[in-house]
Structures are given as structure tokens and as C-alpha cells.
Amino acid sequence: MADPLSTRAREIATVARDVLEREGPDALTMRRIAEVMGIRAPSLYKHVPGKDALEVAITIAGFEEAAAGFEAATDGAADPLAAFVGAYRAFARRHPHVYRLMTDRPLPRADLPPGLEERTAAPLQRATGSPARARAAWAFIHGMVLLELTHRFPEDGVTEQAWQVGIAAMQREA
Amino acid sequence: MADPLSTRAREIATVARDVLEREGPDALTMRRIAEVMGIRAPSLYKHVPGKDALEVAITIAGFEEAAAGFEAATDGAADPLAAFVGAYRAFARRHPHVYRLMTDRPLPRADLPPGLEERTAAPLQRATGSPARARAAWAFIHGMVLLELTHRFPEDGVTEQAWQVGIAAMQREA
DNA sequence: TGACGAAGCTAACGGTGTTAGCCAATGTAG
DNA sequence: CTACATTGGCTAACACCGTTAGCTTCGTCA
Prior knowledge:
2 copies of one chain form a homodimer. By secondary structure, chain A is mainly α. Helices cover 72% and strands 0% of the residues of chain A. The model of chain A has no long low-confidence stretch (mean pLDDT 95). Chain A binds chain B through residues 103-107, 131-133, 135-136, 138-144, 146-147, 150-153, 158-159, 161-166, 168-170, 172-173, and chain B through 103-107, 131-133, 135-136, 138-144, 146-147, 150-153, 158-159, 161-166, 168-170, 172-173. Chain A binds a DNA duplex through residues 8, 29-31, 39-43, 45-47, 50-51.
């Protein structure tokens, strides 16, 4: 399933990601991607097996960028947990549509480069010290990010307090 | 926008909810809903303005059921926070597709019965004591539920530990 | 020169939400 | 009782979606 993508296929995946980030998930259509590339939709299938494969490619690129960001932020940080939260939140804010694509559905684990999932999870694992604490912390951060992205919270200062409350609780826990 | 639904419209909304719960979001199609009702898709539009309105109706029904469950669970409970978590998790497990529909997108606040959002949020508000703590707790619970629903966690006992860790952290916080 | 593969194209299929317009049944007013 | 309007079905169709089939055009290489 995970054939390494040809050069042209990687171009398509890059355009797909751009379209998603700039125009949102509704615009992520084969016809729109093709239009941006100056070709017709069916031609994409000479290079890519289908839309799903493009979404997987975007997901992989997202995880790689996220993992690198998490590592850079936490590496040698005085407060690794706070640093992780900052990096996680920054990634989700910078790439909200990609973040949703990465997290809304079950992970296509069979198509992911081996070790990528673990690599992405490792910085939080190290910052919290135990798998259970890592999962709880991840849930809090993921939940906060999603509730912010879906405009669930009133836009007041209370949300910032909630971040602090949650981080403090995790600190004391760790 | 929020005309009160006619009898037939409420029937349609009920069928729509059944289809969503039983067959998943991909099956939630105007043609499928019509098929279950024994009519053709365009006839639905004699009663309902469009698919969006049905999704809003399902969302409202979901919030009303959830709010009632939260109230029943926390009312007079020895440990209101734990009781709330149990009720929240139970609702999400019992109606995973409805839960996703309710939380994946921005709330259609203009079409919601006045006070419903606040009513749903109130039990957690009471259990945590402050808006900031309520938001943090909600984020944790929402994140845990979603990560479970999207099979993000390995299915081992650690997830149950993570629930306990998170609840304990919120307890101490409150 | 001739064969062949790569990479584009158009046409089309079955699916989606939705609109237009028709028609039969029903209920109501004169 | 008749005449009319409203209700609630219907079919046909549109624009969009992902995708497939099949054609063509071009560059490479024997």
C-alpha cells in the first residue's frame, strides 16, 4: 500500500496540502487540486491511487513536522511539559485543517512510516514520565485545541486560565 | 431560521437520527432517509429545508438527552465530578456518531433553543466550581472520549489509568 | 524507423444535495 | 355538491463529487 511516491506524486501531495490549508477541507477535491496544477482531475490518477492516498500523505507530512517541532521545543527545556503544550498548540493553530485531518479519523497506521507515531508521542511521554499521565495530558491538550478550533469557548480570558489550570494540574500530577 | 418543525418534519428528523446512529455518517443521506421512510428524497424538502436542518435537529436532540443525563447523574451525587465523567462518557459511547456530529463543527447557536447550551454545561460548572476549571475538565473529558472513539490509544488498561489520573488531577484542582 | 511507456486528455458512471415542475388526493368555501 | 386551493407525493434534472475507460500525444531507445 505504501509505495514510495514518485516525484510527480509528491508534487501533487504538496499542492493538496496547500489547497487544504488555504481553502479548507471542502475545497480539497481532486478537481481543485488538478486545477491548481493546470491539469485535469483524471490525470492525477496516473500518479496517485486516489484521494485517500493524498490524505495519508498530508497526514504523514503533518506528523513529521509536528514531531520535529515537539522535539525542538522540549529538547533541553527547563519545563518540558509547558514547552510541549506550547509547541502542540502552535502547530494546531498554524495548520488547523491539517490538524483536523490528522486527528479526526483513525490513524492509517498501515501506511505510516514505521516509528513515526511513536516518535511524535515520545516528547510528551518524556515530559510526563508515565504512559497513563501522557495519555491524560494528551487528551487535555487535544480537547482544548479542538474546543478552541470549533469555537466552543466564549472568546474571553477564561480559556487562557483553563490552559494554565490544566497545565498546573498535570505538573502536580507529574 | 428555527421554525418549529412540523409533525412530519419531526418524524424525518427521528429517522435521520436512527440512520446516523445505526449506519454511520456516510449513510446519513437524503436518499437513504427517504428510503427508510418509503418515499423519495425530493419529497423530504416539502417538510425540511435541507440536510443541514436535520443535522441541527439531531444535534439539539442530542444535547437535550445529554443535558438530562448529566443532571440526573450529578444531582445529589456524593462525587459530582466523577458522576459527570461517567455520564458524559456513557453518552458518547452510546451515541458515538451523534456525539461527533454535536462536537465536530461549530455549534449552530442561532438555531439552538435558548438556554440549552448553558443547561448542558451547568452540571460540570457546578461540579468544578469555576469556569476555568470547567473548561479544563471538559477539554480533558472531550479529548479522552475522542481519542477513544478514533482508536488513538492502544486498547490496554493504561487508558483506564489515564481516566483515573485525569479525574484525580481535577479533583485536587477543585 | 518503429515500438513503447509516460502522462496528458475527454467522456462517462454512480453517488451526493437540491430545484423545478407535475399530479393526485384532500379539505374547505360557496 | 361543486369548485378551488393546499398538501405531499412524484420524476427529471442540475452541478458537484471520486473514479474508470479509453484515446492521444510525446519522448526515448533499440
